[in-house]
């Protein structure tokens, strides 16, 4: 079974003293045929993770990114975290080695920004027609771009997904494909075509791990890429 490094999240909403990561991430990896391992924020672990694991899963979370990852005049509204330095270093190593990366929510945003994209810290404030994306339990459709890697994996053009994010990608670098959008045009997925497997999802696909959801094919494709 491919061994998957799963960066742990933490309780930044309280005091950042505990790792706090939903079990669904581990279940989704296991159900797709991988063996997940939680990765703490220890600098000495970076090279071990880069060399000894087959894939990297960057999970959701709410912590601050560098100011230059945002459009002019904007900045993060979340607290700082030790996670930033460790996750960034691991993801860059995986991208450099062309090892599979799957980013979810905050993980997608890091993948995007490491490839030249820019964020808004509050997507709903950018336009009056933006949906409420930060609503636990709500669903909305996403349209998947024909010809994208994501479309090939899922095999469908529309997918109902959950929505739990305040930040969003608003500038897409030419090296990146925005492969899915919400009805309000908010970017919901990205991929890096120059890499073997580097996909980011703004929604929480792990939340569907215990159900029959077409998006679970993304986890299976990720694990298959980790085998090759």
Write the layout of secondary structure elements.
Layout: E1 3-7, H1 24-31, E2 35-39, H2 46-52, E3 55-58, H3 83-97, E4 101-104, H4 106-113, E5 118-120, E6 134-144, H5 149-154, E7 158-164, E8 168-171, E9 177-181, E10 187-191, E11 198-201, H6 216-227
Parallel strand pairs: 1-2, 1-3, 3-4, 4-11
Antiparallel strand pairs: 5-8, 6-7, 6-9, 9-10, 10-11
Helix pairs in contact: 2-3
Describe this structure in words.
The protein has 228 residues and is an alpha/beta fold. It has a single domain (3-227), classed as Rossmann fold. The protein contains six helices and eleven strands. Strands 2-1-3-4-11-10-9-6-7 form a nine-stranded mixed sheet, with helices on both faces. A hairpin with a 5-residue loop joins β9 (177-181) and β10. It is globular, with a radius of gyration of 16 Å. The chain starts with a strand and ends with a helix. The mean pLDDT is 96.
Helix-residue proportion:
10-25%
How much of the polypeptide forms β-strand, as a percent range?
25-35%
Number of domains: 1
Give the class-level CATH name: Alpha Beta
Would you tell me the overall average pLDDT?
A: 96
CATH topology: Rossmann fold
Can you list the strand order of the major beta sheet?
Answer: 2-1-3-4-11-10-9-6-7
Order of helices and strands: EHEHEHEHEEHEEEEEH
**Assembly state here?**
single chain
Q: What Rg do the Cα atoms give?
A: 16 Å
Broad structural category: alpha/beta
What's the total number of strands?
Answer: 11
Show unreliable segments: none
Which shape, going by the Cα principal axes?
globular
